[in-house]
Design goal:
With about 140 residues, the chain is of the alpha+beta class. The protein has a single domain, classed as Gcn5-related N-acetyltransferase (GNAT) (Aminopeptidase, 3-Layer(aba) Sandwich), CATH 3.40.630.30. It has four helices and five strands, in the order βααβββαβα. A five-stranded mixed β-sheet has the order 1-2-3-4-5, with helices on both faces. α1 packs across α2. The chain starts with a strand and ends in a 17-residue tail after the last helix.
Length: about 140
């Protein structure tokens, strides 16, 4: 079942995040606080028999330059043993419906150039390169 994440999901989300992004700073207390306080992000999870199988994060970018918010899927992860069951599609479908409900005209996401499985999924759902180039730079200390 796909639903919004709650503070009670913090421990399981920490484990999923470590599987996806590796060990980091986001412990259960940080995750719990973020789920309760961060209004710029929506976290969606899939749950089967009390166990989270995957999650998606949607960031809401707002600017005075545009009349509508610009949502971006910043994270999408499904546990290896639950892949190829349509869970990622369900998570994305939920995110898309949420964005339509907010009046958004489009939805963005980033993925690795060599992440062929994810790219195939996204393209099968209508996502396409938009001509933008993503650049990044480490913050100087």
């Amino acid at each position: 079942m796909v639903r919004f994440a709650t503070a009670e999901d913090a421990e399981q989300l920490e484990m999923l995040n470590q599987e996806f992004n590796g060990p980091g700073e986001a412990g259960p207390d940080h995750i719990r606080r973020s789920l309760l306080e961060n209004r710029q992000e929506a976290v969606v999870v899939d749950e089967e028999n009390g166990r989270l199988t995957g999650f998606a994060c949607i960031q809401w970018k707002r600017s005075f330059c545009y009349s509508r918010p610009s949502p971006e899927i910043t994270e999408l992860y499904v546990r290896r043993e639950f892949r190829r069951r349509g869970i990622a599609r369900k998570l994305l479908s939920f995110a898309e419906a949420l964005c339509r409900g907010e009046g958004c005209s489009h939805l963005e996401l980033l993925t690795g150039e060599d992440n062929f499985a994810a790219r195939a999924l996204y393209q099968s759902l209508g996502y396409a390169p938009d001509g933008e180039i993503h650049l990044s730079k480490p913050a100087e200390k």
